[in-house]
Amino acid sequence: MPAFDDIAPLLAHLSVELPSRAFVAEPTGRRDPFAALADVARVHEATGLTPTAALDLPRDAVRDPGALRRHAADLGVSVGTVVCDSAREEHRGLAHPDPRVRRRARDHHFRCLDLLTEIGGHDLVVHLADGTHHPGQDDLRARQDRLVESLAALRERLTDDQRLVLRPWTADPALYQTDVPDWGTCFAHCAALGERAVVGLDSGQHAPGAPVESVVAQLLRLGKLGAFGLRPRPLADDDLIVGTADSSQLFRILHEIVRGGGHRPGGVALALDPCPVEPGVVGQVRSVLTVQEMTARALLVDREALDAAQRSGDVLGAHEIFMAAFHTDVRPWLADWRAHRGLPADPAAAASGHPGAGLGGTPARRGA
Amino acid sequence: MPAFDDIAPLLAHLSVELPSRAFVAEPTGRRDPFAALADVARVHEATGLTPTAALDLPRDAVRDPGALRRHAADLGVSVGTVVCDSAREEHRGLAHPDPRVRRRARDHHFRCLDLLTEIGGHDLVVHLADGTHHPGQDDLRARQDRLVESLAALRERLTDDQRLVLRPWTADPALYQTDVPDWGTCFAHCAALGERAVVGLDSGQHAPGAPVESVVAQLLRLGKLGAFGLRPRPLADDDLIVGTADSSQLFRILHEIVRGGGHRPGGVALALDPCPVEPGVVGQVRSVLTVQEMTARALLVDREALDAAQRSGDVLGAHEIFMAAFHTDVRPWLADWRAHRGLPADPAAAASGHPGAGLGGTPARRGA
Amino acid sequence: MPAFDDIAPLLAHLSVELPSRAFVAEPTGRRDPFAALADVARVHEATGLTPTAALDLPRDAVRDPGALRRHAADLGVSVGTVVCDSAREEHRGLAHPDPRVRRRARDHHFRCLDLLTEIGGHDLVVHLADGTHHPGQDDLRARQDRLVESLAALRERLTDDQRLVLRPWTADPALYQTDVPDWGTCFAHCAALGERAVVGLDSGQHAPGAPVESVVAQLLRLGKLGAFGLRPRPLADDDLIVGTADSSQLFRILHEIVRGGGHRPGGVALALDPCPVEPGVVGQVRSVLTVQEMTARALLVDREALDAAQRSGDVLGAHEIFMAAFHTDVRPWLADWRAHRGLPADPAAAASGHPGAGLGGTPARRGA
Amino acid sequence: MPAFDDIAPLLAHLSVELPSRAFVAEPTGRRDPFAALADVARVHEATGLTPTAALDLPRDAVRDPGALRRHAADLGVSVGTVVCDSAREEHRGLAHPDPRVRRRARDHHFRCLDLLTEIGGHDLVVHLADGTHHPGQDDLRARQDRLVESLAALRERLTDDQRLVLRPWTADPALYQTDVPDWGTCFAHCAALGERAVVGLDSGQHAPGAPVESVVAQLLRLGKLGAFGLRPRPLADDDLIVGTADSSQLFRILHEIVRGGGHRPGGVALALDPCPVEPGVVGQVRSVLTVQEMTARALLVDREALDAAQRSGDVLGAHEIFMAAFHTDVRPWLADWRAHRGLPADPAAAASGHPGAGLGGTPARRGA
Question: Region (Disordered): which ranges (chains A, B, C, D) (predicted)?
């Protein structure tokens, strides 16, 4: 197994994008993006892991995007992504039979792209809570033709350093059928749209029994994995802290991302979803630290020994080498890592300003 | 709604391929393909719907494929498909790290293709019960590279009228991960392999909540749907009669196939799986008749009215038009259809030679 | 198969309860229960199938429940059920470790029971969107003890003609674990609570692969099925019209309810959920008519012939008899049924006051 | 967190039962139970964790059960359980409509009980691969009545120190419906059968999204959890090594068993399933060691601190305390534990006689 010092440089690449939506504390949901970016900066100061944020429209609409961009720069962070939110009906309809509805939906997506450009970000995430309610309501095939046409119009407007990230919307209680139900649909459309269109996966989207890590490996192989949304469970939607349930899956996913080179800058954009259960900085800090823990374990896999075992057909030996990294307790090492970088020992407490929020630091408790 | 006479010519295109494996009555599994083809012919005589059969290796290995081909022709049927069975370990390994294992697996697939050519069929189905048992056992990405290499070698040997049909193997109790877990993987590989490589779906392979009919529509749109295996339930594996459980899904799938032109000759090869629960001709006859019933309903959809309702945004009206076809009882009409063609009133009884097997004919019972 | 006239008296028993929540048209959600009951009455006038409504607190809180009761009586309907809604945090906590939180949650449920008594209803539905967010957050076993204690306090207050209906909440994106995840938990608690506590199922709650109809049959056998919430799909939550997707499952469920005597007055309370996708009377009318269609089919099962086939081991014969009822087109007969009772030919149009809403009546369209 | 020495006495209670079926190496499946018990003894010698075995009929039928019992005693192990295998059709039918078929199935179960008595075991596991193939084939409710009647006849014959363990069979590709699909059915029947009937869970049986650990906690609370079959994944059936995929779920399940007192002698019988993927001693040793690792972690939960955090409403604090135990690397400690007991450092190598089988011992590799 590599020594922890050997993996430190690779771990330094780790960067997790936070959504502005994560920082809406009040039930009204009316919190301005300036405050949200300040929260992202607070998490970044406390963890060293979150230099970028994702905004979404219409929630984060501002009169002066330039001012928001400068605000972010002053705080030492930036906006990497704009998500085209389609929760409101007037923003849906990229595949609608009525051309006026399609135009309205495209205009929303164009505005998102405008914001992305003005704010200096590079990824436009298209995530469509869209489809049909009833069998027969619309022609399934024609919808795909219209969808691709709309996406092509959007792709057309990208600058050379921007990407269109198409993310699946697996199932929806209000929909009989969603337009982009799986990674296969994303891949087919992104392949047709060309180089700047990439797939955005998340842990919740997969065929039953098929490990998400297989899809990650496949899309990296195809050069089409642009982003990965980290969710706590293999469900289509979830509001919890990442890694709460099956942390071994998170480990396997991050191992494939590392294996495929996706952890390097310009690779796979790792992003958190909001965590309504623990809103604000505390929930995000804890999710980010879990991602760091699992990335550290993934980097600890003894690649050389693993490769040798795999090639020689030593099935159980290879499995053992792989799992040994997962079972290693990296928390004391990460505490040192933070100390060396002048990061707070208890990032959640530091970010939130509440001493108890970070729960006292795990390594200390272990000695008790 | 179209009159039944209007849909009769389209219904005449319906053809369902039967697997030789369906006719293995004895527990030993040692029944020769000559007898299986005679059973297929018996079902075809009784239903007019099953002119072709699918063989598989190693089960259907014969010394003289030409004799088998002539035997089929004498019976008025032919072999359309050879399935590369990978139930035995020595036939697996197209993605294996050891080149000798890969070669052995390829040789098995080459033998299947040889049989396909000798028997005069056109579709080679690759259906891989293959993958890894343990996380870390093999490199997921390298496996896909090796798999594509193996498939390319196979595709290279196809003649101009042959197709390689890649079918997903979603999950497996003995496998941590399967190599071809979903339609997205099939599509990515078939797109890379070029024109003669197509996807073989079946009802059991889909993301949770995503209707299979969406995938059918998408693959037809992409020109990559080669075959559809009709299964009774949305499970990865099943041994029952088709349509036993959710016949409305079968209706929606067949509607998309009809909508996409896949029901025409050279389109989507509809195929049954064996039905171990009711082996032999009776189970196959009943499955085939259910497919015919649901195809008739799909053809009865009033396409013109549906199109108008869809375009005008009459959501519930469109749904109603669609479902009206599903709720129409086509059984009396199909009884007439059989009578006009000189087909037996009770196909299961006729095919099996047992008067009771067909259960008396539905329309007659309804009058009781 | 029985003649339609034979099943008409049984069909007359059919009664489906509508939720007041179904009739909240405005996005504010602020519509008063008086107006909702008027809508229920409108659906009942148009279909003859919905004489009762379900209210829920806090939404349907009124100053003078007596006035609401008289209002309902004037309209020819009544309130059968009050649902204890736990969407707001202050209404959750029947199992909470803090006794003050538990008391607050119990008080909410007591208020619901008070309303039930004042309004003259008989079923109190407990449906808990409750549980824990994180593994370890609370003691799973102690939660069940506290929950039963809370339910016992509620059950204690029931009058002799009231029932406590415990309904499962399978999964929740915001919860790691729900307190009443399945019918087994409901049954265990209701068995402990005694005679007046019964289980409320719905189509969305079941183990993977286990048909809901099996659970219906089991709970009827155990004398513990109190209510059945009809949902369109086998998902935990759904917003669509009933029967949209798999109508054959609905048929099988209703067959078991009929088989177990649950369709008789005082048996299983059939209830719809709101249908946000088609809010208001139109969505409810269409769902109710689908339930009537499927009940008619369930009643058409030739029970005598089925019994004989089952006993004689004629497996496929029994299946055929069962499915013949499902495949019968009962729509023309139900149109006659409505005509004979002086009910409108197009109930959705009649209930909504919009001629087009009912989509023209299926039998008429069929002739076109 | 408790010190390792504090949990050592509790860990000493851990005992995992091995199935004789796990040791069938040859494809013929004809290996005699004498050899299988020798393998169980070999695993026990190497791990100190597997003093008992489970036999099943008809596979383990022997002329002289007394001789087998003495053979086991000589080897230092014993038989705890007999599983009534229903893979062969002539052993199914406890719920069949034909009384002759029911009698034949009961006779099989009676023979299993006879073997249990003669061999000196205490648990009879009823695990029914039984149900119906087609909707309508049999009366679902009557089947349950017949099933309970059959189980009651079996329960009647139990001696005072024997238990009937009813285990669910969730889904089956060959069945439309299984007779004992979930824990709710098991519980309802065991409650009716009285004190000596208990539920046998396994990791693969649960409602979607409902954590298995909730069911474990509930059944322990109800005094009805008799056994737990440890499987590697939340699937209905699986052939892999335990803990391969989601080891955190295994940790949570074992925590509930410990919490509910089920780890003490006479509590919950922990049992492995065969692991066809790695047959023989190696697969079993590795599964057993994973169970030990996760039990050690479950025992390391700081119960006092957890209780305090839970009671004070410190949600994230409680979660942290819980997960700290899971994230602790117990492998070095367990290596010491083995050394102190004179157990081999590499149990898999010791049990199999092949030095490489145990993969070199994890702690040693970590230093590399």
Answer: 346-368
